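1st attempt posting a full record on here, be nice pls
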Amino acid sequence: MIEKPQFTRADVEIIRREEMYKRFFRVEKVFLRHKLFDGGWGQEIGRELFVRGEAVAVVLYDPVRDLIGMVEQFRVGALDEPSGPWCYEVVAGMLEPGESPEEVARRELMEEANVEPYALEYICNYLSSPGGCNEKLHLYCGLCDLQHAGGVYGLPEEGEDIRVHVFSAEDVFAVLLDGAFNNAAALICLQWLQLNRSRLQNQAACE
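the predicted structure (as tokens):
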């Protein structure tokens, strides 16, 4: 049995926060102290925090035809990647105030892929890089008909230029760990899909 961590949020004292940068994203320096495993409290430390917030990512899957939908777009963080800065990804977007993760999933699927799923399966959530960023991603599998999917979408006013690709599941899984999908959300979603593929196909066959 895996027990919960020993300490909770109550075992951290925030001393002060300093805003270092604020535009589309925000960076804070957080001064704090926390309890120690050997007992007592640690000394004051300062940590830079990239304030990113919550996001949603969705892998598109057509269980009837065994097809996977991925999006391709330019990513500045991948400028120096050997394969170049255009990445194969799952559909993703940030939560806006008052939105639920499922609402974001459906909105982003229409904006980025022009696809409306007939069902969403929740996969998991995770912190992308908790050593210095508070970003939390909620992952879904969007079950849909990909027979006629494809094209270029996104919001031009936000500089989006997003191409939708439809691949056979066999082709995707054959290169899953070869670097074609070089981001965590895509890899986690696709590995989950690999594990649940037969179940989703059987469910679709019974409907």
